[in-house]
Amino acid sequence: MAPPPEPPVHGRTPPDPMVPCVARVRRRRRDAPQVWTLDLEVDGGDGTKNFPFAPGQFNMLTVFGVGEVPISLSGDPAKPGCLVHTVRAVGAVSDALARLGPGDPVGLRGPFGAGWPMTEAAGRDVVIVAGGLGLAPLRPALYQLFAGRARYGKIVLLYGARSPDDILFRREIESWRRRLDIEIEVTVDHASSVWHGHVGVVTTLISRADFDPLHAIALVCGPEVMMRFAITALRHSGLDDQSIYLSMERNMKCAIGFCGHCQFGPVFVCRDGPVFRHDRVQSLLALKEI
């Protein structure tokens, strides 16, 4: 027998997580080749409606008549009236999202998922390792770290991109460097002679970073192969598996564990993640399919 429906909350029926509300694009900007950032707002009737979220969570975005796709939030959690999503145009839905302009409607469900361990990070050094578009879901964590700077030890951002043109949020990274209370290193896979920064994969920066491995926590997001090498380098630097967190946000589809598209063994990435502590998914990362 099917379970009875949940009782109304304060006289109202709980919202159906499968039914999107309608948001509208407030601003659109290009961050890199094929990468666009959209600022969305939801009309609450008497003004912009707030949608609180935690760093590392994601929304399901719908382009009506095209389809739906999960996209991590990349904005400031302290500004829940503006939902920021950074999108790489690589498929039908993401390409349609990237082509939307101010005023265009977007279906929105969320936020979903487990976020970055910001509470566990308090009082510790925080090492952020990002590859490519992986900086986008880590940016909300950086905003929160900066907002509560006194609660954390050293903050280290290690970021790798394919080329200088592919560096996300370039102006913001430059402004973060001027804070003088965060260590930032950026590297690219290849560059011309006009580039004077690091050249090489981002994982090579980990051994040079200044942090206390016995009192540090690492947040990692990027392509799966990059995360595997980053975990190895972090362990060599002295971090244990309980101090390494990663986002396995790829492969998600429905956001609530119904479709099974992101199931790996007992884990549903959308429902149980997308952020996991490494010791929980260590065996999954060894699978070639991931």
Weakly predicted, low-confidence segments: 1-14
CATH superfamily of the largest domain: Nucleotide-binding domain of ferredoxin-NADP reductase (FNR) module
The major sheet is characterized as: 7 strands, antiparallel
By DSSP (H or I, 4+ residues per run), the number of helices equals: 7
- Please give the share of residues in helix: 10-25%
CATH class of the largest domain: Alpha Beta
User: How many domains make up the coordinates?
Assistant: 2
Number of strands: 16
CATH topology of the largest domain: Rossmann fold
- Helix-and-strand structural type: alpha/beta
Average pLDDT works out at: 90
Instruction: Give helix and strand order, one letter per element, not per position.
Output: EEEEEEHEHEHEHEEEHEEEHEH
The coarse silhouette is globular
CATH architecture of the largest domain: 3-Layer(aba) Sandwich
Determine Rg (CA atoms, Å). Answer: 19 Å
Q: How large is the share of residues in beta strands?
A: 25-35%
| N→C terminal distance | 37 Å
